Amino acid sequence: MILSVLFCLVCMMGNAFGGEGYGIELERPPYKLATNQPKDRSYEVREYAAANWTSTQMDSASSKSSEAFMRLFKYIQGRNAAGATIDMTAPVTTHIAPGPTIFDMKRTMSFYIPQDFQADPPAPTDTEVYIEERQPMTAYVRSFPGWASETENWVNVYKLFEDMKRNGVDEDTVDLTSFYTAGYNSPMRFIKRHNEVWLLSKTPNRT
Ligand SMILES: *[C@@H]1O[C@H](CO)[C@@H](O)[C@H](O)[C@H]1NC(C)=O
């Protein structure tokens, strides 16, 4: 009883912090829906425009996701050549590239740079943080709720690929060397959490 009351209070707090749990609606990278959506709507096909992101590697065993997040968060809080404060955006993506051996797994966490700074992002002063200009990309996107553990991400990327094949996507056109995870909520949000995994097309549509 007491536990459920407590839990509900926590829910309401999470909800009160705004749409995504950061206190405000966050700017997102622009995309268009591709014309070839799957008939069963099990995933979405999006065409993202070229955009600058700020990124950091988390490729060693000691590099926890919270540490990578803090490096990027400090960059937007002013740890950059202009001393500029940059708004938080959504999603936070992690690019996962497994590599040839179990020790080569490369994970890169990124924040999208908001429009105000897109054309000329201030240089990071932390040497572990860099600006990454992403080319236009066509992403196959599967959404799922809850807390995205590493296992949940892998399970969902498997399901996504199964759904894509069932819908007639030619697997030779898909980049299967890596995938993205995308998280849209702050850790302070406890309900209606939205997560995605993305597989990219080898050749983006440039419509
Ligand atoms: C990304 O930033 C660079 C400057 O660092 C700029 O030349 C480029 O046009 C920007 N890319 C986009 C897509 O705005």
UniProtKB/TrEMBL annotation:
Residues 1-18 form the signal peptide. It comes from the Eukaryota. One of its GO terms (molecular function) is heme binding. Pfam families: SOUL. The keyword NADP does not apply. Keywords: Signal. The keyword Signal applies. InterPro entries: Reg_factor_effector_dom_sf, SOUL_heme-bd. Belongs to the HEBP family. This is Heme-binding protein 2-like. The lineage of its organism: Eukaryota, Metazoa, Chordata, Tunicata, Ascidiacea. The gene is Hebp2-004.
